[in-house]
Design a protein that fits this description.
heterodimer; A: alpha+beta; 7 helices; about 20% helix; B: mainly alpha; 6 strands
Chain lengths: ~375, ~325
C-alpha cells in the first residue's frame, strides 16, 4: 500500500517536473529575441549622409556652371547600399564588328584616362558572335569572345571611374545566408552592368573570407586569396601566409580591404607568371571550364571565362589558361571557380556558354556597376 | 525576412518560432496519446518528453552549425545564442532516437520499437505543422516560377535585396502536405493492420515514406543543408536515402528469415537498387540541366514510388508468411508489454 502511494507520488512528481522542464524548453524555443541589429559593418566605403550631400552639391554646381567653368562630376557608391543604380538601357549596345565600336572608344577616352584597352577596333572575335558594350560617364564595359587553341574565351573588359563600382554580392544579401541563386538572378537583383560568378564561398571552407571589411573566416593553408582594397586594386596573400583571424584582420585594416575572393591560385602577380605546382582546388591539371579575374591597371579589369562552345570543343587546363592569359597584358590574374560555376553576365544576359548549358546555383558574384544615379 | 507576430516590451515574437512551438506541442501530445494507448509506461512517457525536446533542440542546433558554420561566430555561440541561425530537422530525429536509447538503457522504456512507432507517427504530424512556419519566412523555397503564382505550388517571397516579391516553388508547403499525407497513411496502417504488424513496423514505414519524400523535395530547395566536404548532395537527401535503404534491409531480412529463400527475391532487390540508382542519376541530371527540372523530378518521383511499392510488397510477403507461422501467437503478447 505504502509502496503504491510512494510510486504514485513519484509519478506525480516526475510528471510535474517533466511538465515544467518541457514548458521551459518550449518557451526558449518560442521567445527568440530580435536580431541584435548592428551588423558591425566597418566597410571602408560606407560614406555618411554629409558625404552624399557633398557629392550631390558638387555635381549640381557642375551642372549649373556648365559652359562657364569645368568642374568634374564625381559619382560613387556606398558598400552599405545593397543594390547599385540601374544602368541606363540606352547605353547598352551590341555589334558583330569591332570596327563599329570606334565611336564608343573615342567617347570613352576621358574615362580611360590614358590607359590602353585590350579590346580594339582590330580585335578578331569568334566568328558569328556579338560584341556587347555599355558606356556612361562612370563605366565602360565591353564583352566579346575569341578563340584560342580551340577554346572560346569570353572576355569582359571594364574600366571604372571609382573603386566603389567594383562590388561583391552574396546571395540572400548577407554573409552566411543559406540561399543560392543563378549568376543572372543575382546580377539582375543588384543592377550589375557586368557580373561574374565569384568564388562560391559557401561550397568550401578554404581561404580567407573578408566581407564588408571584416574577416569572416580564415583557413589559408591550401589556397591563395585575392583581396580588393578601397582603391579597387587586387592584392594577394599566398597559401599559409595569414594563419589566424588576428593577422588576417590586421592585414585587412592595414590595406583597407573591402572584400576578398577565396579560390585561386594566383596566376600572374606584378606582371609575372607564377609557377603552379599543385593546388588544393580546381583540378588544375585536368581540362575544365575556367574563370579568372584580371587587373590591367588602376580601375581596369578583365573578367574571363574559358568554355567549349559551338565547334570549339576544348576546355583548358589551368596551365594552358595561364599561358593564354599571359598574352592579355595583365598585371594581376586570379583564378575563380570554374566548371559549371563559371559565368559572365551582362545586362542580365548570360555571355558565355556555361557547362551543360544551364547555370548552377551559387552563393556569390562579383560585379561592376554604374555610379550614375538613376535618371542621370 | 521573418515576420513579427507580436511585440511585447522589447521582446519580438516571430511567427516562425510560434509555429515551431505549436508543432512541438502537437508532436508531444500525439506521442503521449499513441504511446500510452499502446500500453507504454507512464514513467517512460514522462521522461521521454523533456529529454526528447532537449536533445532535439541541442542536436538540431549542432547539425545546423555543422552545415552552416558561417551563420555563427563559433560552436559555443551556436549553442548559446538562439537569436541567430536555425535548427536542422535531422537533429530532431537524432534527438528522438537518442532519447529512446537512453530510456531503454534506464529501463524506463521496455519496448523500444513500440516507442519509435509512436515517435514516428507523432513526428509526421509535427513536421506537417512545423513546415508551415515557412509561410512567415523566406526559407525552404525553390526556383522562381513564372507561370504559377498560386498555392500550393507557388508562394510569394519578399526579396530583401530588391524589395520586390518573387513567386517561388513553395517547397515547404509541399513538404507539409507530404508529411500530413504520411501521417494519415500511417494512421490507417496502424488501425487497419493492428493484428498483422509488429512493433517497429510503423517506424520503418515512416522512414521509408518520409525518406523518399525528402529525397525529391529537398532537391528543389535553394537553401539546402550540405556537408562541409560535399556541396552537391544535401545532408537531408543522404539521410533520406539511408532511411529508405534501412527499411529495405530490415524488411528483406525479415522476409528471408520467415520464408524460405526464393530466387526471385534477387529480382526484387535488383529492381530496388536499379530504381534507387535511377533516383541518384536524376539528381545528378537535374543539377546540370536545371531547365529540365520538371522531367527530372517526375522521373525521380516515379522511381521512388516504385521503390515504395516494392518494399511494401516485401513487407506484405513477410507479414503474410508470419501470419501463417505457428510462432505468430507469441508475437502478439510481446506487443502488450
Amino acid at each position: 500500500m505504502i509502496r503504491e502511494i510512494g510510486k504514485g507520488l513519484l509519478i506525480i512528481f516526475l510528471s510535474a517536473l517533466s511538465l515544467v522542464v518541457t514548458c521551459c524548453l518550449l518557451l526558449s524555443l518560442l521567445f527568440r529575441t530580435g536580431a541584435t541589429g548592428d551588423s558591425g559593418s566597418t566597410g571602408q566605403l560606407s560614406y555618411g549622409v554629409l558625404d552624399r550631400y557633398d557629392m550631390y552639391i558638387t555635381n549640381e554646381i557642375s551642372n549649373a556652371l556648365e559652359g562657364v567653368l569645368e568642374i568634374d562630376k564625381v559619382y560613387w557608391l556606398s558598400d552599405a547600399d545593397p543594390v547599385a543604380p540601374k544602368p541606363d538601357p540606352s547605353c547598352f549596345g551590341q555589334t558583330q564588328t569591332a570596327a563599329h565600336l570606334a565611336g564608343i572608344l573615342e567617347q570613352a577616352k576621358p574615362l580611360l584616362d590614358g590607359q590602353d584597352l585590350l579590346f580594339s577596333t582590330q580585335t578578331q572575335t569568334a566568328p558569328g558572335t556579338n560584341i556587347h558594350y555599355y558606356l556612361d560617364e562612370t563605366i565602360l564595359a565591353i564583352t566579346w569572345k575569341l578563340v584560342i587553341d580551340d577554346t572560346v574565351y569570353t572576355v569582359s573588359e571594364v574600366k571604372l571611374a571609382h573603386p566603389s563600382q567594383f562590388r561583391r554580392f552574396l546571395a540572400g544579401g548577407e554573409y552566411g545566408s543559406e540561399i543560392q541563386l543563378h549568376t543572372t538572378q543575382m546580377a539582375q537583383q543588384v543592377n550589375a552592368v557586368v557580373a561574374s560568378s565569384g568564388d562560391f564561398y559557401r561550397f568550401r571552407r578554404m581561404g580567407v573570407i573578408v566581407y564588408d571589411g571584416v574577416v569572416q573566416r580564415v583557413d589559408s593553408e591550401k589556397v591563395d586569396t585575392c583581396y580588393i582594397n578601397d582603391q579597387g586594386d587586387l592584392l594577394f596573400s599566398y597559401r599559409g601566409e595569414l594563419a589566424d583571424m588576428e593577422s588576417a584582420q590586421e592585414f585587412v585594416d592595414k590595406h583597407n580591404i573591402r572584400f576578398s575572393l577565396a579560390f585561386g591560385p594566383v596566376l600572374i602577380d606584378g606582371g609575372e607568371s607564377k609557377r603552379i605546382y599543385g593546388y588544393g582546388l580546381g583540378e588544375i591539371d585536368s581540362n575544365y571550364a575556367r574563370a579568372a579575374l584580371c587587373q590591367r591597371g588602376p580601375l581596369h579589369y578583365l573578367l574571363v571565362t574559358a568554355n567549349a562552345e559551338g565547334n570549339y570543343r576544348t576546355t583548358p587546363s589551368l596551365h594552358t589558361m595561364q599561358k593564354h592569359l599571359e598574352t592579355f597584358g595583365c598585371e594581376k590574374v586570379y583564378t575563380l571557380d570554374g566548371g559549371q560555376t563559371a559565368a559572365i553576365v551582362m545586362n542580365g544576359e548570360l555571355m558565355n556558354r556555361v557547362v551543360y548549358g544551364y547555370q548552377r546555383n551559387i552563393s556569390d558574384i562579383i560585379y561592376f556597376a554604374t555610379a550614375l544615379p538613376e535618371g542621370g | 525576412m521573418e515576420q513579427i507576430a507580436f511585440i511585447v516590451g522589447e521582446t519580438f515574437l516571430y511567427w516562425e518560432p510560434i509555429v515551431l512551438t505549436l508543432a512541438a506541442i502537437t508532436t508531444i501530445f500525439l506521442f503521449l496519446a499513441f504511446y500510452l494507448w499502446d500500453g507504454g509506461k507512464g514513467l517512460g512517457a514522462c521522461l521521454a518528453v523533456p529529454l526528447g525536446v532537449l536533445l532535439s533542440m541541442v542536436l538540431g542546433r549542432m547539425i545546423h552549425w555543422y552545415c552552416r558554420a558561417d551563420s555563427y561566430i563559433n560552436f559555443y555561440h551556436a549553442l548559446t545564442d538562439y537569436s541567430v541561425g536555425g535548427y536542422a530537422l535531422l537533429g530532431v530525429f537524432a534527438g528522438c532516437f537518442l532519447t529512446g536509447c537512453i530510456l531503454r538503457g534506464l529501463g524506463a522504456v521496455r519496448n523500444l520499437p513500440q516507442f519509435f512507432d509512436s515517435v514516428g507517427m507523432a513526428g509526421a504530424a509535427g513536421i506537417a505543422v512545423g513546415r508551415l512556419g515557412c509561410l512567415y519566412t523566406g526559407a525552404d523555397r525553390g526556383e522562381i516560377l513564372q507561370a504559377v503564382t498560386q498555392m500550393p505550388l507557388a508562394y510569394p517571397v519578399f526579396n530583401t535585396v530588391t524589395g520586390q516579391t518573387e513567386y517561388r516553388l513553395a517547397t515547404f508547403l509541399l513538404q507539409a502536405m507530404a508529411a500530413g499525407g504520411i501521417f494519415l497513411l500511417l494512421l490507417g496502417f496502424r488501425l487497419v493492420c493492428r493484428h498483422r504488424r509488429r512493433p517497429g513496423d510503423i517506424c520503418f514505414m515512416f522512414l521509408l515514406l518520409y525518406g523518399s519524400s525528402q529525397i525529391v523535395l529537398d532537391s528543389t530547395r535553394y537553401d539546402s543543408l550540405f556537408l562541409r566536404s560535399n556541396g552537391f548532395i544535401s545532408i537531408v537527401q543522404i539521410a533520406g536515402a539511408a532511411a529508405v535503404v534501412l527499411a529495405v534491409v530490415v524488411f528483406s531480412i525479415r522476409l528471408v528469415r520467415r520464408a524460405r529463400w526464393r530466387w526471385w527475391y534477387c529480382l526484387l532487390w535488383t529492381a530496388i537498387l536499379g530504381l534507387l540508382g535511377g533516383v541518384g542519376y536524376m539528381e545528378y541530371y537535374v543539377q546540370r540541366h536545371g531547365d529540365r527540372a520538371l522531367f527530372a523530378y517526375t522521373v525521380m518521383s516515379i522511381c521512388l514510388l516504385l521503390v515504395i511499392v516494392l518494399v511494401s510488397t516485401i513487407y506484405i510477403l513477410s507479414a503474410r508468411t508470419e501470419l501463417d507461422s505457428p510462432t505468430r501467437l507469441g508475437a502478439d503478447t510481446e506487443c502488450l508489454n
